[in-house]
Every structure is written in structure tokens, then in C-alpha cells.
């Protein structure tokens, strides 16, 4: 008879797996939207229309590749005030933000 606690933790792992595969859940999306508003907004404007940083509106980013945007978010832009966010977020989250910027009205 295997240790019931080992079985329980295995079961917990299996149950947690579908959620992990889905990646960014609703709660995380909410956090990222908040980050865009508060943190990115402090430089790019609360309505993303620009400030210290250039506008991040859908129109301003139109034609830019989501990968390029995600890389800028992750690594920053050397020589500008755009900081690298890699220490603070996963690549998946940076891609989510890139899509969010490209797809949503500010
Ligand atoms: C400390 C100020 C600051 C913060 C915070 C900041 N940025 Fe920037 N960002 C800049 C500056 C400055 C530039 C480069 C010059 C420019 O494009 O105006 C830039 C450039 C960019 C660019 C390239 C824009 C283009 O048209 O080439 C993107 C995309 C971008 N930032 C996204 C973000 C996102 C997303 C966040 C939040 C996760 C963020 N930035 C947070 C200052 C900031």
C-alpha cells in the first residue's frame, strides 16, 4: 500500500496540470492588464497615448510583430528609459501583453 500522502500529492499534481497547460488564467490576465495600466502607463501614459515613452496604442503599434514587441518588453531598449521586464515576468506573459497591446482599444 503506497503512502496515502504521496498519492494525494500526485493527485494534486495531476489535477493542477490542465490549469498549467492553459497558461495565463483569468486572474493572471487581470494582473497583467493592471501592470500595463500602472507600470507601462507611468511612462507610456494611462491611456497608452504616450508620455516619456512613445504611444502604445493599437494604431501606434500597427504592423509591428508581436515577437518584436515581446522582445522589447523582455529586454528593454538599450539607450532609452525602456527597462527590461524579464526579471519580472515570463516570456508567455510578455507575449500576452504584446497581443493585448495589439488587439485591445486603449
Ligand atoms: C521608465 C519608463 C518606461 C516604462 C516603465 C516602460 N517603458 Fe516602454 N519605452 C520607454 C521608452 C523611453 C521607450 C523608447 C523610446 C520610445 O519609443 O518612446 C519605450 C519603448 C517601448 C516600446 C517600443 C515602441 C516603439 O514604437 O518602438 C514598447 C513596445 C514598449 N516600450 C512597451 C512597454 C511595456 C509593455 C511596458 C510595461 C511592461 C513598458 N514599455 C514600460 C519607457 C518606458
List keywords for this structure.
single chain, 106 residues, mainly alpha, binds heme C
Uncertain stretches of 5 or more adjacent residues: none
- Give the C-alpha Rg: 18 Å
Figure out the total of helices. 5
Tell me which CATH architecture applies here: Orthogonal Bundle
InterPro entries: Cyt_c-like_dom (IPR009056), Cyt_c-like_dom_sf (IPR036909)
Protein name: Cytochrome C556
GO molecular function, one term: heme binding
Pfam family, one: Cytochrome_CBB3
Could you describe the 3D structure shown?
By secondary structure, the chain is mostly helical. It has one domain: Orthogonal Bundle (Cytochrome Bc1 Complex, Chain D, domain 2). The chain is 61% helix and 0% strand. The chain contains five helices and no strands. α2 crosses α5 and α4 packs across α5. The longest helix is centred in the first third of the chain and has 19 residues. It is elongated and about 65 Å long. The protein starts with a helix and ends with a helix. 12% of the residues are buried. The mean pLDDT is 88. The structure holds heme C. The site of heme C has 20 residues, from α2 and α4.
